[in-house]
Hints:
Helix content is 16%, strand content 24%. With 446 residues, it is of the alpha+beta class. A hairpin with a 3-residue loop joins strand 14 and strand 15 (248-250). The relative contact order is 0.17.
Amino acid sequence: MLSLEDNDILCRVGAGTPMGGMMREYWIPAVRSDELTAPDSAPLRIRLLGENLIAFRVTSGKVGLLQNSCPHRGASLFFGRNEEDGLRCVYHGWKFDTTGACVDMPSEPAESNFKTKVRANAYPCIERGGIIWAYMGPRSSGEEPPLPDFEANMLEGGQYSLYTIFQECNYMQGWEGEMDTVHQAFLHYGSERPQELQPATAGFYIARQRQAKFSVIDTEFGTSYGAYRPAEDDTYYWRIAHQMFPFYAMIPTGTLGIEVRFRAYVPVDDDHTICWTITGRNGDRPGREGLRGTGGTQRAGGDPAIQWLPNTTDWYGRWRLTQDPRNDFMIDRELQASGKSFSGIPGGARPQDMAVTWSMGTTYNRSREHLGTTDQLIIRTRRRMLAAAKAHRDQGVVPPGVDKPEVYRHRSGGVILPRSADWWEATQDLRKAFVQHENLAPLIGV
């Protein structure tokens, strides 16, 4: 059970909060590259860690991220003219470059040097692998930490797929959903029956025994777990995954050693999140061809049932699914009663996950919970996050992974191991990123 005070520390991400302060030490996925398609294109409203910001790509191709309000009189820079390597406020013509420097002030006398004394708050941006990363932390320009070494965001030739989903709840609710591998056997595959599945497959092992046993460890990047079920007489089927500071997850779906993927639950503010899923193209993944793509395709597991609403220009208008609380996620009670779908919610895992995590409210009061043995990873990750946020607040301790990008060089997924094996030691090679495993047989199923 979590105290209300610790619940607030975990969930509140605004400037001046312990968690918000800690998160600002990291580079954060802020904007998709395909949202700012061309130099001098229209500015974009984004909200990140509770701040209203304007993103824009200037003539040279660089991306800027400025405060929403013009430093002059507070008019929104969203209405600005993006031209000649800067964003010009339409109210009085003040122009700012990507660093926030005022480079033109036509409303002042020509001999005035006032423009040299005015700056807009700006955050450095780096573009890599279809993601525009922002640094909102305290380090000065040129002294920022390195980007995290996520393999799926570093592949040559753009061999990746990327999709984003807006969620109307606190980032912890979605992120903790990734920590909960047991729900997959119920929410997503509760209607599966072992007698209807191919024996000796991942799906078969899960359907045969829905509950799992856990091993959870602290790691240099956060926490990791192995959830295991009996496979054959002398083996276990393990689902191995990672929770990475400050809001990343590598889920256990697919085959360990082949899957190249990470998710990010990026806080828009305390009550809204954008979930990023980035998957690298690496070998064969039976049944998961829909995840393949080049250059950032907006797809979710290749499931055509998932649909996005058109993006709008308001603060909460990007990457919304057609399924949401206003239509009960399109739940089909007849489908649920038929036994063909455990939840009755169409569209696959993403809308099913969203339905349950949003139904908790925008920020759930965790002091009401009753956690069991299968919630070990949630408990352990919360403790690590709280300890890191408090150490950063009280002693200025740099949180895990900020200055060690190599700690993110991991893979996750499923694997069959002898029952006598130590899961962490036995999978040391398979968990390594940037490795091409030859003759690795993919697991069939989830």
